[in-house]
Amino acid sequence: MYAIIQTGGKQYRVAPGDVLRVERLPGERGDEVQLDQVLLVTSDGGEVRVGTPLVENASVKGQILRQGKAKKILVFKKKRRKGYRRRQGHRQLFTAVQIQEITV
Q: What residues make up the domain containing 39?
């Protein structure tokens, strides 16, 4: 059984037991998270339910494992032959979530 969910403007394929990093969600370590934007759900029997755009009464329950920052990326701007250079770093905030169950 798996589902496709949407959070933080991105889509993820999840199954029970998966650990994934998503954009920062509110909550502390150990809190339960309910993800309600479910786009597709499959069952163990092979039945596929596709939402228009969301599947009715479907949700994914998870537990927050960690709140953190990703590795630093460099944002570098340059205009050739003009002596213009700007360097800036960015660390994206994330939440590590372990998927507990998928309910339909």
A: 3-103
b/e burial code for range 50-74 (CB count within 10 A of at least 16 → b):
eeeeebeebbbebbbeebeeeeeee
Number of domains comprising the chain: 1
Q: What are 22-66's pLDDT values in tens digits?
A: 999 999 999 999 999 999 999 888 889 998 899 999 999 999 999
As a whole number of angstroms, the distance between CA 35 and CA 23 comes to 13
pTM: 0.83
Q: State the Cα–Cα distance between residues 42 and 102, nearest whole angstrom.
A: 10
Pairing of strands 32-35, 59-69: antiparallel
